[in-house]
Amino acid sequence: MRENPCILIIYATFGDGHVQAAESIRQSFAALGIGRVHLVDLFAEAHPNLNAISRKTYLLSSAYFPRLYGFSYDFTNRLRPDPMYSRLFHSVGRRKLREIVDRLKPDAVIHTFPYLAMAELSERLALGIPTFTVLTDYVLHSRWVHPDTDRYYVATEGLKRSLAASGIADDRIAVSGIPIRGVFSQRLDRDSACSELGLDPARKYALVSAGAYGVQGHLNKMVRTLLEHSDCDVLLVCGKNRNLLRKMETAFAGEPRVHAMGFVERMEAWMAIAWCLITKAGAMTLTEAISQSLPVIVYRPLPGQERGNAQVLSDLGAVLTARHSEELRECLRTLHSQTARTKLTDAMSGLHVPGSSDRIASDILRKLSAVKHPHADWGRRTASQAVSLSRTN
């Protein structure tokens, strides 16, 4: 390993979790004195127009056509990880990646999105660059699986078993937890957080998060159920969806117990004051709540990975799940029981892996210390390899 290794992290902006994980890992490398860490949204760089269309389609389908999205997720999950379709999927953007690799000459490449282009490129050209994949969900999809990934980092022991069952050697899988921002490494004082956010510490607050892009449906009914069946004020976070914010402000105009907001910073402070969190089943938000031992109700989880996240964590006793308003009322009754809340927080404590991004960064550096410098033999690559690559893009 070089004295100052270069790290390339490949992410995607289909939801904020993948880029948040990438940024958390970058910060951990920086704390270890590794400054040459490059974050690349490969799909956006390789195919900007297609990326924009795909992101829009993803947001619209998950919000308005969730069954169609779920069908697509389940269908692609049934495909084995090694047939032609999977190879083709991971090859998208390979030419752009080759340009980036030639320019940066990274010592390691990390994926935080199931678009494992580097593993595919390295296998085809025998580059010898170690590749690492950080799973940012609690459930496995076949797109995360590539036989040439050197090491996987996963959230739970159960996910490790699922990955091993897909053919990945057990010693190539580490249970690291999902990397979240360093601000969640400790818990804030509730009174101080209330003072910072201008809220009354004597009030009880339910934090409702629609996600970074505000794609949570059925918010109106959810909020009215909270008002009718709890004594909580509702902190309603609508994310970056300004249209959703306007609709919620209109729907609850004159209701003093509802505080509608757009995208908020300092989510750790909002979580510190909350009695519970009601949210979609994005793995990053759930992991942040778990780190704070904040009871969570997942409301109407979307088909696909979010439903899988909710199912896994519900089975482990770490979250409550409500599919409709009647079940939401039952979940609220459950949370009023201190015994039930203690069971939830105990399950969260059992799942929480502190310092996940630090663990991942340190482990990767240890792995690199035993690896021959991958670029030593680049000059001997044959012209036929380069021609082969150009023909397959």
TrEMBL record:
Q: Where is the Diacylglycerol glucosyltransferase N-terminal domain?
A: 18-180
Q: Major location, coarse class?
A: membrane
Glycosyl transferase family 28 C-terminal domain sequence ranges: 227-329
Family annotation (Gene3D superfamilies): Glycogen Phosphorylase B (3.40.50.2000)
What's the superkingdom here?
Answer: Bacteria
**Matches recorded under Pfam families:** Glyco_tran_28_C (PF04101), MGDG_synth (PF06925)
> What GO molecular function annotation could you give as one example from this UniProt entry?
hexosyltransferase activity
Keyword match tRNA-binding:
no
Location of this chain's protein in the cell: Membrane
> Which biological process annotations from GO are given for this protein?
glycolipid biosynthetic process
Alphabetical keyword list: Glycosyltransferase, Transferase
Cellular component, GO annotation: membrane
Family indicated by similarity: Belongs to the glycosyltransferase 28 family.
Q: What is this protein called?
A: Galactosyldiacylglycerol synthase
User: Can you name the source organism?
Assistant: Cohnella candidum
